[in-house]
Q: What sequence folds into this?
């Protein structure tokens, strides 16, 4: 500015408070154009590349988000499906358990019924056997008591005279033997 | 106990009694003691219990026979019991009685009755058994209430049973 002012402008001419001298405008304009051209030439591609990279990065992030969204949806779907599978598996297992329980119950009832029948049969047989044994024992006991009573009654009826008569009879019979 | 051991004891008792000069009396007392021994579970248990010391068993014998039998009889029984042969006492005594009878050429006649016999009955029964067996007998009378009535006489292997007990048994078996 000072160079321009020193070479091209009349020092006597008054200076506008707002606009610079024309020559300064021209040189400045040209210099600005050259600078902008250089900036455009050398900085443009970098700026374009930076923008493109940013755009690609944003796009990649958008794509990633979309993929994440899709993945989340897929996962949610899988979870829902798995939940459905679990529910169906639970239902299947419950049904199977019910079936097994019913089978076990039925089998248990049959076995119990068979065991009860067997026990009843054995109890009846034992009861019959016991009754028979008790009857036999009773008969033996009655016989033993009867025998004892008979012995006692006979002994009581044998008075001394009868005892002596029996002895005398024995002596006579033995004496008669030879 | 082996027969030889029984016979050995019987021979020893026989010789002692004979040496003492009271064989008949001792033989009769021993016979009666043997029958008492057989009929009494308590006496058998006391005289055969190995846990009871020998001198205690001998004391029981002496207290039982003191005043009831000759000292020879008491000492002979005490000797057998003290030597731990109480279980074989009846067998030893029966062998002694047989030996004593044989020494006098007599057969042992064991007579079981429910009531005691009079001397006259004993004499007549002895004569009847002698006549029946064809051999002079050494009569041994045992009072046995289980006979109920009548008489059971055993001479050697021969048994003459005229007891009410046997008749009742026959009647029961028929019924």
A:
């Amino acid at each position: 500015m000072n160079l321009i002012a020193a070479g091209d402008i009349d020092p006597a001419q008054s200076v506008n408070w707002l606009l610079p001298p024309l020559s300064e405008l021209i040189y400045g304009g040209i210099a600005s154009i050259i600078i902008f051209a250089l900036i455009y030439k050398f900085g443009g591609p970098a700026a374009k590349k930076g923008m493109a990279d940013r755009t690609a990065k944003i796009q990649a992030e958008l794509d990633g988000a979309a993929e994440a969204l899709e993945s989340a949806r897929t996962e949610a779907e899988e979870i829902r499906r798995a939940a459905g599978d679990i529910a169906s598996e639970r239902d299947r297992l419950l049904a199977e358990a019910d079936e097994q329980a019913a089978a076990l119950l039925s089998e248990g009832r049959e076995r119990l019924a068979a065991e009860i029948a067997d026990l009843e049969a054995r109890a009846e047989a034992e009861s019959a056997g016991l009754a028979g044994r008790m009857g036999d024992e009773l008969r033996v006991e009655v016989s033993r008591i009867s025998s004892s009573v008979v012995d006692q009654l006979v002994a009581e009826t044998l008075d001394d005279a009868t005892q002596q008569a029996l002895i005398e009879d024995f002596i006579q019979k033995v004496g008669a033997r030879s | 106990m082996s027969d030889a051991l029984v016979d050995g004891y019987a021979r020893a008792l026989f010789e002692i009694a004979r040496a003492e000069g009271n064989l008949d009396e001792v033989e009769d007392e021993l016979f009666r003691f043997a029958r008492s021994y057989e009929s009494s579970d308590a006496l058998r248990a006391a005289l055969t219990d190995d846990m009871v010391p020998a001198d205690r068993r001998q004391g029981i014998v002496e207290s039982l026979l003191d005043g009831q039998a000759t000292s020879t009889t008491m000492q002979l029984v005490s000797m057998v019991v003290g030597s731990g042969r109480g279980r074989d006492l009846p067998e030893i005594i029966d062998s002694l009685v047989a030996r004593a009878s044989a020494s006098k050429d007599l057969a042992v006649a064991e007579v079981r009755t429910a009531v005691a016999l009079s001397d006259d009955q004993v004499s007549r029964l002895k004569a009847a058994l002698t006549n029946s067996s064809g051999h002079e007998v050494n009569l041994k009378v045992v009072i046995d209430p289980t006979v109920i009535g009548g008489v059971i006489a055993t001479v050697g292997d021969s048994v003459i049973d005229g007891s009410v007990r046997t008749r009742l048994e026959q009647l029961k078996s028929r019924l």
Remarks:
- The longest strand of chain B covers residues 107-113.
- The interface with chain A takes residues 113-115, 117, 121, 124-125, 127-129, 131-132, 134, 145, 148-151, 153, 160, 162, 164-165, 168, 172 of chain B (CB under 8 Å).
